[in-house]
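Quiz preparation item.
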């Protein structure tokens, strides 16, 4: 008797089979059967991962509350970090598994969302107005949950739901059922969170949702969706956020691959793949990437605060991950971790919970996000018999698996349509080549920067990790410190011996919030360090929030935009050269003139001709940019950094910069003030 038959026989007899998991991974023609002993641990580093023969070792159920390990806010609902230490791993051909799994449905009593449509719409409006509108971040994910009670035994109901997901759902990364004795998770997650194999780390940002809940996707409507700025921006923003994560777990950051379509039964998503080489323990990879921006928001740390403010209840396993840890034949660690979305959580007493969320961005409408949550729940609810299944489009033609049965891996063919492929490819035309291309470490090095040191102050936005990769690519040695880690902001850090006084360049980085709010300790500290850097004359670069703080210290007026610049790409004039760059901001400095005189010397301003918004500034020993040169949205970001470093760190050599960085002029009054002209070849 196979392990699957044994489990199903025990369940049919009303006997507890012990902890197990059934998993079908994307493209596989077999259902994996995992059995073992359950352990509860406190931290990700405690997840057991022992050596031995190649194969999976542990399946971990990581709840959302585990985000507290990173020091981020959450409503702690006590959901445990459970680990199935594996002692059995079997593979059953998919056709055989489908024959064995039960097909009957179990009625669900009293099912409905815990937050009504009007209530959810009101929350959406508050987040758009009070959070995105006030500069707290670019996008946030707020969830609601469908709740009900099964009118029969939970395990047979979950097995029947699994069978329907295997036959009716398409495009899932993992289709699975996990039973621990204390809970059941059954779902079809479209999204890989992170995987590690052969030293290659991969992430899979998915965003943008085209809904077709009542039938096959319409090609023309899909093309309209692919051209929708809201959907395009939504994917770009999560792409940037996952590149931030890749910056911490891959040696040279992540390379962007795609975009692609992720086609499922009720909806179509757009997605990218990110890949990079790394050597961290896979449990540390998990910790550094908690959790995907597609289920939280950005910037990550503040997104967690916003979620806690507006949800006011725990998330359970929603937005967490399943994580299958193991070793390969060479003894290297492996990891495969789908995000826990499109998943039903079922208690031993039959209480059902299906959590879903919508990504709120500046273009969002309350009605659209309400509809999105219904569509995202539809696949799991259909598997539970609460919604009618959606048939595969006839245009896809018949498709069978290796056993001649209808294939559960049949792909819709919209992705092969030439117009669809062209629409997807066009999305990369204005993105930063630095992140799209394979990078050789020496290609972008500027000789005048080799041996010089930069200190980046992180103001709670891990864009600084991407910025560090770009500065290193240009030749600098880079250290990264949180704003509250420097015990003396102008002297030495006690732990590292580093500080602005011992760096050739200090970068005051981006972060959320109101730059004028001096009641915020972060803003007050940043204002202090920028003031002392100006007084000392040490080279300083401000990025986004750092730029706003610098502008404020120079006497420029700060202004909150009526329409936030969150995830916005623009062509701007930077000191005589047009650059395409990406903005993530709700605040800006303003000026009526292109240059001002301050107590720290003359300042040249690159500003918007219509409203006076200051896109960039530069003076004797300092510069600032309102946009993010490190963002994937900043096509010309590396060239902008090269220009700024040439300005701030002049070199006696004159090695030529790449052609893209040419141009620019000295600020007004430079000669009379002793301000050095632009140095080519920093």
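Solution:
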């Amino acid at each position: 008797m196979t392990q699957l038959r044994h489990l199903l026989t025990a369940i049919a007899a009303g006997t507890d089979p012990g902890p197990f998991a059934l998993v079908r991974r994307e493209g596989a023609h077999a259902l994996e059967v995992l059995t073992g002993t359950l352990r509860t641990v406190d931290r990700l580093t405690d997840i057991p991962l022992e050596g031995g023969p190649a194969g999976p070792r542990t399946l971990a159920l990581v709840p959302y509350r585990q985000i507290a390990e990173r020091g981020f806010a959450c409503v702690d609902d006590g959901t445990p970090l459970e680990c199935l230490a594996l002692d059995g791993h079997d593979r059953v051909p998919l056709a055989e598994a489908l024959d064995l799994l039960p097909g009957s449905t179990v009625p669900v009593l009293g099912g409905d969302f815990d937050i009504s449509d009007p209530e959810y719409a009101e929350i959406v409006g508050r987040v758009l107005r009070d959070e995105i509108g006030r500069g707290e971040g670019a996008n946030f994910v707020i969830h609601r949950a469908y709740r009900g009670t099964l009118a029969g035994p939970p395990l047979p109901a979950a097995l029947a739901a699994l069978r329907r997901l295997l036959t009716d759902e398409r495009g899932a990364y993992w289709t699975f059922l996990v039973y621990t004795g204390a809970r059941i998770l059954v779902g079809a997650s479209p999204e890989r969170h992170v995987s590690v194999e052969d030293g290659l780390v991969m992430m899979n940002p998915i965003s943008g949702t085209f809904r077709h809940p009542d039938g096959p996707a319409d090609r023309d409507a899909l093309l309209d969706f692919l051209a929708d700025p809201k959907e395009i921006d939504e994917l770009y923003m999560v792409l940037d956020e996952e590149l931030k994560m890749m910056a911490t777990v891959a040696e040279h950051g992540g390379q962007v691959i795609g975009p692609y379509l992720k086609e499922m039964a009720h909806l179509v998503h757009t997605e990218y793949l990110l890949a990079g080489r790394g050597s961290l323990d896979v449990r540390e990879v998990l910790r550094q990437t908690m959790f995907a921006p597609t289920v939280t928001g950005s910037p990550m740390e503040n997104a967690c605060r916003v979620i806690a403010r507006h949800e006011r209840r725990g998330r359970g396993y929603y937005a967490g991950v399943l994580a299958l840890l193991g070793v390969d034949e060479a003894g290297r660690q492996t990891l495969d971790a789908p995000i826990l979305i499109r998943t039903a959580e079922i208690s031993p007493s039959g209480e059902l919970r299906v959590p879903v969320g919508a990504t709120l961005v500046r273009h969002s409408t309350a009605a659209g996000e309400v509809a999105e949550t219904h569509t995202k729940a539809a696949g799991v609810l259909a598997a539970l018999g609460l919604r009618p299944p959606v048939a595969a489009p006839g245009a896809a033609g018949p498709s069978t698996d290796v056993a001649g049965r209808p294939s559960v891996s049949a792909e819709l063919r919209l992705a092969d349509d030439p117009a669809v492929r062209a629409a997807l490819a066009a999305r990369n035309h204005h993105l930063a080549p630095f992140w799209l291309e394979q990078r050789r470490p020496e290609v972008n090095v500027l000789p005048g920067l080799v041996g010089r040191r930069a200190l980046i102050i992180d103001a709670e936005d891990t864009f600084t990790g991407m910025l560090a990769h770009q500065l290193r690519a240009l030749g600098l040695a880079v250290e990264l410190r949180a704003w509250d880690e420097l015990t003396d902001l102008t002297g030495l850090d006690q732990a590292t011996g580093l500080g602005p006084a011992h760096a050739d360049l200090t970068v005051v980085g981006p972060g959320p919030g109101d730059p004028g709010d001096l009641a915020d300790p972060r803003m007050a500290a940043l204002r202090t360090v920028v003031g002392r850097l100006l007084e000392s004359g040490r080279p300083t670069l401000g990025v986004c929030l750092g730029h706003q703080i610098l502008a404020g210290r120079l006497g420029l007026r700060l202004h909150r935009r009526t329409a936030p610049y969150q995830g916005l790409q623009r062509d701007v004039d930077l000191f005589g050269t047009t650059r395409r760059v990406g903005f993530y901001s709700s605040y800006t400095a303003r000026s009526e003139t292109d240059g001002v005189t301050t107590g720290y010397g003359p300042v040249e301003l690159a500003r918007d001709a219509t409203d006076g918004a200051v896109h960039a500034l530069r003076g004797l020993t300092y510069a600032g940019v309102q946009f993010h040169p490190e963002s994937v949205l900043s096509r010309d970001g590396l060239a902008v950094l090269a220009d700024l470093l040439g300005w701030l760190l002049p070199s006696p050599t004159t090695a030529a910069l790449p052609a893209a960085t040419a141009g620019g002029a000295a600020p007004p009054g430079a000669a009379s003030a002793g301000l050095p002209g632009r140095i080519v070849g920093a």
